[in-house]
Amino acid sequence: MTIRAVVKGVGHYLPERVVQNAEFEKTIDTSDEWIRSRSGIERRHFAAEGQTTSDLAARAAGAALANAGLTVDDIDAIVVATSTADLTFPSAATMVQARLGMTRGFAYDVQAVCAGFVYALANANALIVSGQVRRALVIGAETFSRLMDWTDRGTCVLFGDGAGALVLEAHDGSGTPADRGILSVDLNSDGRHRDILYVDGGVSTGTTGHLRMQGKEVFRHAVEKLAETAHTALEKIGLSGEDVDWIVPHQANIRIIEATAKRMQVPMDRVVVTVQDHGNTSAASIPLALSVGVTRGQIKPGDLVVTEAIGGGLAWGSVVLRW
Ligand code: UT7
């Protein structure tokens, strides 16, 4: 018998304020046309002043719990993927725990930037299959607007804020890819690429810092590495692109999403795309897209879903699951 971490509920939260591309035309040398054609982004949400990552995360978690028909008393662990925790410490996850009124179990953050949700899913899966917890909340939440240099047109138009969450529950499986739940994981990182995507602040500088990115270089790595990691995760369980019902990719750039789908030989009508509405929300982008994909009626129980992401580190990876 095999234990599987099965998705019991999904939910998301987006801050109220929506910023259209045209708004940036007032302050920097850019255009709606450039942003749309180079990235696929049309609008993004920005958190209100004083609104923090743990606030967005707790709201997404509440929606996922409601969707699962569960309460915090049913949850054993909270794993939050974020690079924009409210404070240097404690973790955003313990703040979410407090916001939800959860006084048992344990909570911690995972930091793998845009690949964070894939890492957090892999981590929560390990907790469940090893029998340490029965149910886990896995959340991706970010306020990347707080890391923007508003004079850098190469980055500030690309990112947004938001949060998405899944409830995972231990179920008995047969050990075959026909099982529901997480079926395969592939994680990678290569610290030699630190300088192409990083924040120039932190504890060592005593500042929060701003996001710095060599877009073209990151783009090149993304196109090469995302299809590869998805392929590896599928191959581990004897599956291929043909078996995939939905790719739910990290939403950074429509051109990366399309190139990855093409390399995986999966048509775009089997890819959940939200980048036009959310921009790049880093670790929040995959759970946001999963939640939107379910709401739209795209992802259904039994579907084979492949998530893949890459970000600062570089860190990248893929999780294959049956919804
Ligand atoms: O989530 C983590 C992973 N992140 C990513 O996956 C992001 C990966 N990279 C990308 O998505 C793309 O590289 C970008 C969307 C960031 C940029 O697209 P690009 O086609 O690689 O453009 P580029 O950086 O090569 O810039 C082309 C031109 C440059 O002008 P020159 O030097 O050719 O005259 C830029 O200065 O576009 C210019 N440019 C802009 N123009 C108008 C850069 N940003 C803007 C802007 N508006 N906002």
From TrEMBL:
<keyword id="KW-0963">Cytoplasm</keyword>
<dbReference type="Pfam" id="PF08541">
    <property type="entry name" value="ACP_syn_III_C"/>
</dbReference>
<dbReference type="GO" id="GO:0005737">
    <property type="term" value="C:cytoplasm"/>
</dbReference>
<feature type="active site">
    <location>
        <position position="280"/>
    </location>
</feature>
<feature type="region of interest" description="ACP-binding">
    <location>
        <begin position="251"/>
        <end position="255"/>
    </location>
</feature>
<keyword id="KW-0275">Fatty acid biosynthesis</keyword>
<keyword id="KW-0276">Fatty acid metabolism</keyword>
<comment type="pathway">
    <text>Lipid metabolism; fatty acid biosynthesis.</text>
</comment>
<feature type="active site">
    <location>
        <position position="250"/>
    </location>
</feature>
<keyword id="KW-0443">Lipid metabolism</keyword>
<feature type="domain" description="Beta-ketoacyl-[acyl-carrier-protein] synthase III C-terminal">
    <location>
        <begin position="234"/>
        <end position="323"/>
    </location>
</feature>
<comment type="similarity">
    <text>Belongs to the thiolase-like superfamily. FabH family.</text>
</comment>
<keyword id="KW-0511">Multifunctional enzyme</keyword>
<dbReference type="Pfam" id="PF08545">
    <property type="entry name" value="ACP_syn_III"/>
</dbReference>
<keyword id="KW-0808">Transferase</keyword>
<dbReference type="InterPro" id="IPR013751">
    <property type="entry name" value="ACP_syn_III_N"/>
</dbReference>
<keyword id="KW-0444">Lipid biosynthesis</keyword>
<keyword id="KW-0012">Acyltransferase</keyword>
<dbReference type="InterPro" id="IPR004655">
    <property type="entry name" value="FabH"/>
</dbReference>
<dbReference type="InterPro" id="IPR016039">
    <property type="entry name" value="Thiolase-like"/>
</dbReference>
<comment type="function">
    <text>Catalyzes the condensation reaction of fatty acid synthesis by the addition to an acyl acceptor of two carbons from malonyl-ACP. Catalyzes the first condensation reaction which initiates fatty acid synthesis and may therefore play a role in governing the total rate of fatty acid production. Possesses both acetoacetyl-ACP synthase and acetyl transacylase activities. Its substrate specificity determines the biosynthesis of branched-chain and/or straight-chain of fatty acids.</text>
</comment>
<dbReference type="InterPro" id="IPR013747">
    <property type="entry name" value="ACP_syn_III_C"/>
</dbReference>
<dbReference type="GO" id="GO:0004315">
    <property type="term" value="F:3-oxoacyl-[acyl-carrier-protein] synthase activity"/>
</dbReference>
<feature type="active site">
    <location>
        <position position="114"/>
    </location>
</feature>
<dbReference type="GO" id="GO:0006633">
    <property type="term" value="P:fatty acid biosynthetic process"/>
</dbReference>
<dbReference type="GO" id="GO:0033818">
    <property type="term" value="F:beta-ketoacyl-acyl-carrier-protein synthase III activity"/>
</dbReference>
<feature type="domain" description="Beta-ketoacyl-[acyl-carrier-protein] synthase III N-terminal">
    <location>
        <begin position="108"/>
        <end position="191"/>
    </location>
</feature>
<comment type="subunit">
    <text>Homodimer.</text>
</comment>
<protein>
    <recommendedName>
        <fullName>Beta-ketoacyl-[acyl-carrier-protein] synthase III</fullName>
        <ecNumber>2.3.1.180</ecNumber>
    </recommendedName>
</protein>
